[in-house]
Write a sequence for this structure.
């Protein structure tokens, strides 16, 4: 990273962590359920150097500029872009994994605010770099839990574990079925002859955090009413007993219960190489997110519909938290060259926006990069 070298010389450590796209299993992670994400070929790179004891910790972002924190007692502003970076360092310090002040530079090609987990990529890359500098061992699950704590305790976003876990622990060439209760990750290959397309509606989310917290709270109310630890433990027929005044909670719970079933069925379909079954489950997931969970939006619905009617599409749905950002499609590999321009042209016709569409192979989780840019692990 030229910026780091110019300012501070050769970094002591260089790390990277990827963004992700979730194939199926949406809004299930904070209900102890199942998700099926894969890391994508966009990542965030952190160059890190030790600073002299007593000096501030400083971060430069190619996109956002520079920020510093003078010492550990200085409060971190939750809404500031650097909260993710300082938050990781602060919580690692709290665990006794202290490395003292540092200087770091971050660069990313993960689209920001597009539902591709740019914040988890940043947190995980930072944690990877700090742990390497401190000579600490690397554990993907513990790191994901730490990054989730940054979101909860520093940023104030009550997110689940999916994003940091796939960014930290993904296996190259595989998506992962994750049990968000045990945190077990089961890597799975995509069906032969298929590719994953990421379809950016070019809309960005607003006020999503309060809607996210609302959805989470509704799930918790439903779980309490049903006397289960989490909606993962609830059965569909039990929802019929819920009173009329809990109609919203019932619909939210119906999404979560059916989405868990779809996600497990998708893993079975993937094991059997049954792309058509996987695609049908993606389509059903979108309908449930749109109608029962109400986290889609005009642009996402339009994009998904356009994807469905474009050459080679096997299945499509919104991905991530919802409301804006990206959709994901499973596409026949031999039709991908026709699929992309068809989607772009039709989306432009209905929205006036120029959608970005990327094909991504499942990428590897966070890694250390040596000074000549190799990934030794
Ligand atoms: C966001 C959160 C995740 C997950 C998804 C919805 O990406 O960070 O934990 O809840 O929304 O599936």
């Amino acid at each position: 990273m030229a910026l780091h070298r110019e300012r501070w010389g050769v970094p002591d450590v260089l790390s990277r962590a990827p963004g992700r796209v979730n194939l199926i299993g949406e809004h299930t992670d904070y209900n102890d359920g199942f998700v099926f994400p894969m890391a994508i070929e966009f990542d965030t790179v952190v160059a890190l150097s030790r600073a002299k004891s007593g000096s501030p910790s400083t971060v430069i972002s190619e996109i956002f500029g520079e920020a510093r924190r003078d010492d550990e007692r200085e409060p971190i502003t939750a809404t500031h872009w650097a909260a993710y970076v300082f938050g990781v360092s602060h919580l690692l310090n709290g665990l006794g994994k202290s490395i003292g002040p540092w200087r770091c530079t971050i660069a990313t090609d993960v689209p920001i605010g597009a539902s591709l987990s740019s914040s988890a990529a940043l947190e995980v890359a930072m944690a990877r770099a700090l742990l390497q500098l401190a000579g600490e061992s690397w554990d993907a699950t513990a790191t994901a839990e730490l990054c989730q704590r940054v979101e909860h305790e520093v940023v104030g976003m009550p997110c689940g574990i999916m994003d940091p876990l796939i960014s930290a622990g993904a296996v190259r060439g595989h998506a992962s079925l994750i049990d968000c209760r045990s945190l077990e990750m089961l890597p799975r290959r995509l069906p032969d002859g298929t590719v994953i397309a990421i379809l950016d509606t070019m809309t960005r989310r607003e006020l999503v955090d309060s809607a996210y917290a609302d959805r989470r709270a509704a799930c918790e109310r439903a779980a309490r009413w049903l006397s289960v630890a989490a909606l993962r433990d609830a059965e569909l027929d039990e929802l019929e007993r819920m009173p009329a005044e809990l109609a919203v909670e019932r619909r939210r719970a119906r999404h979560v219960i059916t989405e868990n079933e779809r996600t497990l069925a998708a893993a079975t379909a993937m094991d059997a190489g049954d792309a058509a079954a996987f695609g049908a489950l993606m389509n059903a997931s979108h309908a449930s997110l749109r109608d029962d969970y109400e986290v889609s939006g005009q642009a996402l619905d339009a994009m998904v519909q356009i994807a469905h009617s474009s050459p080679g599409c096997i299945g499509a749905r919104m991905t991530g938290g919802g409301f804006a950002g990206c959709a994901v499609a499973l596409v026949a590999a031999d039709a991908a060259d026709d699929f992309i321009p068809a989607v772009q042209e039709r989306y432009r016709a209905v929205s006036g926006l120029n959608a970005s569409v990327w094909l991504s192979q499942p990428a590897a989780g966070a890694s250390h990069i040596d000074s000549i840019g190799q990934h030794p692990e």
User: Anything to note?
Assistant: The chain is about 40% helix and 20% strand. The first helix runs from residue 2 to 8. Residues 26-27, 29-30, 159-160, 162-163, 320-321 surround alpha-D-galactopyranose (CB under 6 Å). The radius of gyration is 21 Å.
